[in-house]
Design brief:
Elements: H1 12-30, H2 37-48, H3 54-61, H4 65-77, E1 81-85, E2 93-97, H5 99-120, H6 125-139
Antiparallel strand pairs: 1-2
Length: 140
């Protein structure tokens, strides 16, 4: 029986879950548990979009509000981000990267690339690009 017809291996959800497990294992091996992929994503978005509110992070990263609130609180306690009143609405807080947050992002970038290379090493460059295209299509 081939992998394409054997249960549960024939199911897309099973393969997606296994790929996620491989990503988490590769992340842990390369980066460790000190900084999660969610924290890295928040740092990357705040670097690109300084002064984003938590709601905007939720929308861009497709993460629920309570998770974003918890992660941002931990990141603030660790000195990676600060909350400041928004210039256009002082009742609303936005997040900014601290100097430590910027250094952490710079430290993580090559490691994240290493995780990606490790995760996709069985694929050719064209297959990797196609996988990303198809996954993006699934999640949109």
């Amino acid at each position: 029986m081939s992998e394409e017809t054997r249960e549960p291996q024939k199911h897309t959800g099973f393969l997606l879950r296994r790929a996620q497990q491989k990503h988490v294992a590769t992340w842990q091996e390369t980066i460790s548990g000190d900084t999660t992929s969610v924290q890295y994503n928040i740092l990357a978005v705040l670097n690109r979009r300084p002064g984003s509110a938590q709601k905007e992070l939720c929308e861009e990263l497709d993460i629920d509000r309570s998770t974003i609130a918890d992660v941002c609180t931990r990141m603030e306690k660790n000195g990676l981000v600060t909350r400041v009143p928004a210039e256009d609405d002082r009742r609303r807080n936005v997040l900014e990267l601290t100097e430590l947050g910027q250094r952490e992002l710079a430290r993580l970038r090559p490691l994240v690339e290493e995780v990606q290379r490790g995760l996709t090493s069985p694929l050719s460059a064209e297959e990797h690009q196609e996988l990303r295209r198809l996954l993006a299509k699934l999640v949109d």
